[in-house]
Design goal:
572 residues; alpha/beta; TIM Barrel; nine-stranded mixed sheet; 19 helices; globular
């Protein structure tokens, strides 16, 4: 008698092998049988006509704060993620001294648009070291599994204090201390280390992050921890100003310390061939014996613009910016006043307000041809006809006037989609090349982050609904390939060795998906973070069940209340 038997589903086992029909049996927290006809189960689930897959292993999230108070970690868990990895982009909350709590909150709010008020209210700070932080994560029962990486910016602040914030050069003693603390984190169960070297990452006041200009010797010195421990991954977001120079030290780091290295890759509108050059750098590094991989997204990395989100196309116009602290209903009423409408539309964007935004976001003030009506269901591969410029051209309104009137219409909850990267040519052609390249890894969902601007934690569902089933503006991808990218490939790269496949003895993390019914909802703004902090969430239809360690945690989109999720420690 098995604990659970999933009967007659279309099994896509996560290895890339062809789908087949059969039963999946679960005993305790392990998979007991895959395929064929299983014996009876204490509970049986009819999966006829539905997909049975491993749970998604989402390796790019920012739930570092939320995971200390929230046992559900939606919306990632709504979209079939059964394991999430935090500590990306060099930001996190450990190690930390009490005097630096506000500094790390400011970093996370500025870089990842997570409301500082929610972090200040929600974080208990019952840790100082990174091992202490892991222990704090370990204490909370949760629906899905979490894992963490140690992040460069808090590490640098812990060792160097204000010198880190001023981006001063690290001394040899500083580097040795950071390497020792990284080793301590890896031995406690961290899956790796991450940093960021980009002008896109700034504090709330517009300052660059502590590790922005860290020298090669600092980055290489920290990496010596990996050689001593013998495992872990090294991740980075970089502007690659000196592409050849970056790949030189990356290659040296990988070969000297036998560590896999990944960096985030998107295209850039001002340099459409940049991503191809960087992929050329990946292939050269691999040919030189370095394990280098580019982590890519499954759709454009874009921001959602609206009256409830953190940005609108009018955010840098002084009269509009003056209303941002008003409650949404009052703000909407004021914006509908004809005199104020005329005043805002006649204003120029403030250079001071624009300067606070990351460089790639500043065109929202002028690029009406690159802002699209999102719609419901949301369209993340819109053609030119859905742009504000094209829609305004069919009226007697300017693009500014059309956009303003569109956003204040209905209940004020309409939204626009502005693809920041991966949409240079107005379609998903570049994304298709990236996600089908064998030297890339699928990620960049950013669950838990960019709360007022982005909701890309729905990417796993999008991979199946758009890329496998619906895409009409170019080639699709195969179901088996998509599932492999979401499961075994991410699990294997980071060392989650007990999951990512439907195989006997593996952890019983399973999704049951009704592919014809899989549908993303329009993003919605909720105010359910601590202290009423806001976040964009996105519901989905089509998940019959999500099972973690042999226990259903969601059924038909509803929580079961089960809490089998745990902290996963690397090397354990």
């Amino acid at each position: 008698m098995h604990d659970i038997v999933i009967r007659g589903g279309t099994i896509v086992d996560g290895t890339g092998a062809a789908r087949f029909t059969g039963d999946v049996a679960i005993d305790g927290d392990k998979i007991a049988q895959v395929g064929g006809k299983a014996g009876p189960g204490k509970r049986e689930i009819d999966a006829d006509g539905q997909l049975v897959t491993p749970g998604w292993v989402d390796v790019h999230t920012h739930y570092d704060g939320q995971a200390t108070w929230d046992p559900v970690l939606a919306p990632s868990s709504w979209h079939g993620a059964t394991t999430i990895l935090m500590g990306n982009c060099g930001v996190g909350f450990a190690p930390v001294r009490k005097r630096d709590h506000e500094c790390l909150i400011d970093l996370m709010e500025g870089v990842e648009d997570i409301p500082g008020i929610a972090l200040a209210e929600g974080l208990k700070w019952d840790w100082e070291s990174f091992p202490d932080y892991l222990n704090a994560l370990d204490r909370l029962p949760r629906a899905i599994d979490v894992a963490a990486q140690v992040s460069h910016h808090p590490l640098r602040v812990y060792v160097m204090g204000d010198r880190a914030v001023r981006r001063e050069k690290a001394t040899p003693d500083d580097i040795e201390a950071m390497s020792r603390l990284t080793e301590e984190a890896l031995r406690a169960g961290a899956f790796g280390f991450t940093t960021s070297r980009t002008d896109q990452h700034k504090t709330t006041s517009g300052d660059l992050v502590p590790g922005r200009y860290s020298e090669e010797q600092e980055l290489l010195g920290i990496a010596r921890a990996f050689k001593r421990v013998g495992r872990g991954t090294y991740g980075m977001l970089s502007d690659f100003e000196d592409e050849a120079g970056e790949f030189r030290w990356i290659t040296e780091l990988c070969k000297t310390n036998n560590v896999p290295f990944w960096f985030l890759l998107t295209d850039r509108s001002y340099d459409p061939e940049r991503w191809r050059r960087l992929m050329g750098g990946v292939r050269k590094a691999r040919a030189d014996g370095a394990n280098v991989t580019a982590q890519v997204a499954g759709r454009p990395v874009g921001i959602i613009l609206g009256l409830t989100t953190s940005l609108t196309p009018f955010a840098a116009r002084p009269s509009f910016a003056a209303l941002l602290k008003l409650p949404v209903a009052e703000r909407l009423a004021r914006l509908r006043d004809p005199e104020l409408r005329a005043k805002i539309l006649n204003e120029e964007s403030s250079e001071e307000l624009l300067a606070i935004l990351p460089p790639l976001q500043r065109p929202i003030a002028t690029r009406w041809d690159r802002q699209y009506v999102l719609g419901d269901p949301p369209d993340y591969e819109p053609d030119d006809s859905r742009s504000i410029a094209a829609m305004a051209a069919k009226t007697n309104l300017t693009p500014e006037e059309f956009c303003y009137d569109y956003l204040i219409g209905e209940n004020g909850d309409r939204m626009l989609f502005y693809p920041v990267t991966n949409y240079v040519f107005g379609d998903h052609g570049v994304v298709h090349e990236m996600i089908t390249d064998p030297a890339t890894l699928l990620g960049l969902g950013d669950g838990g982050a960019h709360c007022g601007l982005i909701c890309d934690s729905s990417l796993p569902s999008y991979m199946l609904s758009h890329w496998v089933r619906d895409r009409s503006r170019g080639p699709r991808i195969g179901l088996e390939f998509a599932v492999k990218r979401l499961t075994s490939e991410t699990a294997d790269f980071f060392g989650f060795n007990d999951r990512g496949r439907l195989a006997v003895g593996k952890k019983a993390d399973v999704n049951i998906v009704d592919l014809p019914k899989l549908r993303l909802h329009h993003p919605e703004m909720r105010y359910d973070l601590p202290a009423g902090g806001k976040r964009l969430v996105q519901r989905v239809d089509g998940y019959e069940a999500t099972i973690v360690s042999g226990m259903p945690v969601f059924e038909r989109g509803e929580e079961t209340g089960a809490r089998p999720g745990k902290l996963v420690r690397a090397g354990r």
